[in-house]
Amino acid sequence: MKKILLVAAILVAVLAFWAIPKSQAGPAKPIRWKATVAGANLIGFGEFVGGVDHVNINNGSGTNDTACAPSGSTSYSYLELQVFTPSLQFSNMGGFSGVGDPDLAPSGLYGFPKITTAWPDCVGDFLTSALQPTAEYAHIDLRFTTCGCGNTKTDLMAMADGETLPVHMSLLFFTHNWYTLPNSSSTPTQYTFLNLLMNAHGWYSGVTAPFPDIYIKRVGNVWTAYVDTVFDNGAYQGNLLGYNSNDWPVTISDNILGQFATYVPSNAGKKGKTIWTTTYHYPCAKAPLKFQIAFTKY
User: Fold this and answer.
1) pLDDT number for residue 20
2) What single-letter DSSP state applies at residue 29?
C-alpha cells in the first residue's frame, strides 16, 4: 500500500507539468501546432508536428499554478512541446556549478544510467551522451508559461504582433525507473535514477538586455521562445538543502534540479512489519543554457 501511495504522489507531481490544451477541448476546431528547435545548447532534428510521430504541442491556460509564486499572479497561459522519441540533442553543455546534499554526495547515491561522474557534471554527461529522450527517460516536457514573471498580460494567444513577454521555463526529464522497493539491508537506499528539471523564471538580468533572459515573442502566427539564462533570477534563489518535499521546489529556486529519494527502514509497524521513511533530496546546479523554439500555429 505504501508503494502504491508513493507512486501515486510521484505521478501527481509529474502530471502537474502536463495538461490537455483547452484549445483542443470541445467541438471547436482545434489549433494545430508545429515547432522547430535550434540553438547553442539544444538542437531539434527536423520539424515537430503536434499529434504526429509521438509529439504533442499544447497551448492552454489555468489558475493557481505554484510556479506563479512569489509574483502573486494566479492566472497563466502556456505553450509546451512534449517529445516521446529520440529527436533532441544537447551540445556544448558546460560550466556547471552546483551543490548536492552534503550528507549523501560522498556516497554517490544519485546519478543517471550509464553515467559515473559526480554532480553536477553528471548532468552535462547525461544530456550530451545520447539523443533525448532516452529509454530510461522516455518523455521530455518543455513548457513555457507566464507564471511568476511579473506580467500584467497572461494570455500568450492575445499577444500583439511583435510583442514580447518574459516567461517561466520548465524542462522536465522524468524516468519511469525512478522507484523500486528497497530491501531490508539497505540503510539508507536510493532507487534508481535521478529525475531532472531545468527551472527558470524569465527576468531582465541586464546581461541579455534589452530582452529578458527567457521570453516569448510573437510575429504573426509564430510564437518563438528565446532562452539565454544562467538560472540567476534573484527572486528565486532559495536554499534547498533542507527541502524534503516530494513537490518540485519551483517557487523556491531557479536551478537545474535533480530529484531523488532515500528510504530508511524501521520495525515500528504492527507485528514487526518494516516501515520505510521516505526523504526527498534536490541537488541543484547552474550552467549557461541557450536555445530557441519556434511554435507555429497553422
Assistant:
1) 39
2) P
Q: How many CB atoms lie within 10 A of CB 39?
A: 17
Q: Which residue do the cell numbers 534536490 mark?
A: 282
Lookup: cell for 5: 501511495
pLDDT at 249: 93
Q: Indicate left, alpha or beta for 201 from its phi (over 0: left) and psi (-120 to 50: alpha).
A: beta
User: Looking at the DSSP assignment, which residues form a beta bridge with residue 142?
Assistant: 81, 171
Q: Give Cα 249 distance to the centre of its chain.
A: 11
Assigned C-alpha cell, 203 = 527576468
Domain span holding position 247: 2-297
Q: Are 51 and 23 in contact (CB under 8 A)?
A: no
Q: Which residues contact 166 (CB under 8 A, 6 or more apart)?
A: 149, 150, 151, 201, 202, 203, 204, 212, 214, 215
Residues of the chain under the 50 pLDDT cut: 1-26, 184, 186-190
The size of the chain, in residues, is: 298
Backbone angles phi, psi at 19, to 5 degrees: -150, 150
* Number of domains making up the chain: 1
Contact of 85 with 96, CB cutoff 8 Å: no
Cβ atoms of 296 and 33 closer than 8 Å:
yes
Distance CA 218, CA 223 (A): 4
d(CA 45, CA 29) in angstroms, rounded, equals 29
Distance CA 61, CA 72 (A): 16
Give the burial class of 200: count Cβ atoms within 10 A of its Cβ; 0-12 exposed, 13-18 middle, 19 or more buried: buried
Element (H, E) at 42: strand 42-44
**Region of residue 231 (left: phi > 0; alpha: psi -120 to 50; beta: else):** left
**Dihedral of alpha carbons 265, 269, 272, 273, sign:** negative
Secondary structure percentages of the chain, helix, strand, coil, to 5: 10, 35, 50
pTM: 0.85
